[in-house]
Design a protein that fits this description.
mainly beta; globular
């Protein structure tokens, strides 16, 4: 990997706090899209009965990690994993956070699992670590490309994506290469099943896997897409540069009004009408099924990852070791 590529990929998961705008101007080809505006337009809605998602939502700083958290995933609200810079891993048991020994100093920008005792973390230089409930161990990935995200449909059907269009698949025994059809960096992935998987990346790249092969989709943007999540095959959201939010309805992708010209970096939801996107300067925006609106995070730190166990129990992580907890 060249120095320029390393710089761009490094910034994808927020390992620098240099001004994002100046980096983009210097290097559009490899700059990571990591940033978000400190506000979004509120959308009016008609009167309706009070639902759980209508209750006030409060964010609080829960803890501070000694490393830069890049991603978060959990099997439940009492079994949550945070991974990040220098091989850092934290575990939350419902009461407090504790450090775990990862056995690597490589940055870890992606984490996902089947259960609390079957978790994968991926990172730079092809790093893959696996947690079996007792400890983390090294897994041979078969690549030196930087792995940026991971997702699976089962314990024997796991996918990871990364730089240079890398896609690798785990069948329960080992990892093997897949043909992506692109050389663009791939930043995130999500699926509704093993035959319906989406991955996104630089220059607006969107790929879809149907169980047989990966094919390109038209998203209508050239922005770097760095986050994706969906509630179903016909309700998928992707976020990226300059406030880009795209929505897929099962037929095609269309742009949503985010109300910002800055960058969004990660997305998660409990349902299609309860979706959170996070990013630059502590920004958190929320989608209620009608429109996006700003939330008060209580931090100015860059937020790189978000995950929740329910609509009332959500975590966001980011720069300066920030760990936020949101609840209703």
């Amino acid at each position: 990997m060249t120095g320029i590529q390393s710089q761009g990929v490094d910034e994808i998961r927020g390992s620098t706090h240099r001004d994002v705008s100046s980096v983009i101007r210097k290097n559009l080809r490899t700059v990571a899209i990591v940033g978000v505006v400190a506000g979004a337009l509120a959308t009016g809605c008609s009167k309706k009965s009070v639902q759980p998602t209508d209750k006030p939502f409060t964010w609080n700083i829960q803890d501070t990690a000694v490393f830069v958290p890049r991603a978060i995933w959990g099997s439940s609200g009492t079994n949550v994993f945070v991974v990040g810079g220098g091989g850092g891993i934290l575990h939350y048991n419902g009461t407090g956070w504790s450090a775990m020994t990862s056995g690597t100093s490589q940055d870890l920008p992606g984490v996902w699992g089947i259960s609390g005792t079957n978790v994968f973390a991926v990172g730079t230089s092809g790093t893959i670590r696996h947690y079996d409930g007792n400890g983390w161990s090294a897994v041979t990935s078969g690549t030196s490309q930087w792995l940026l995200a991971i997702w699976g449909s089962s314990a024997t059907d796991v996918f990871t994506v990364g730089t240079g269009g890398t896609i690798r698949r785990y069948d329960g025994t080992g990892w093997s290469a897949m043909t992506s059809g692109t050389s663009q960096h791939l930043s995130a992935l999500w699926g509704s099943s093993g035959t319906d998987i989406f991955t996104v990346g630089e220059f607006g790249t969107i790929l879809h896997y149907d169980g047989a092969s990966w094919s390109a989709m038209t998203g209508g943007t050239s922005e770097w897409l760095v986050g994706i999540w969906g509630s179903s095959h016909t309700d998928v959201f992707a976020v990226g540069g300059h406030g880009t939010i795209l929505h897929y309805d099962g037929t095609g992708w269309s742009a949503m009004t985010s109300g910002t010209s800055l960058h969004l970096g990660a997305i998660w939801g409990s349902s299609g009408t309860d979706v959170f996107a996070v990013g630059y300067a502590g920004t958190i925006v929320h989608y209620d099924g009608t429109g996006w609106s700003a939330m008060t995070s209580g931090t100015s730190s860059f937020l790189y990852g978000i995950w929740g166990s329910s609509t009332a129990n959500v975590f966001a992580v980011g720069f300066s070791g920030t760990i936020l907890h949101g609840s209703r």
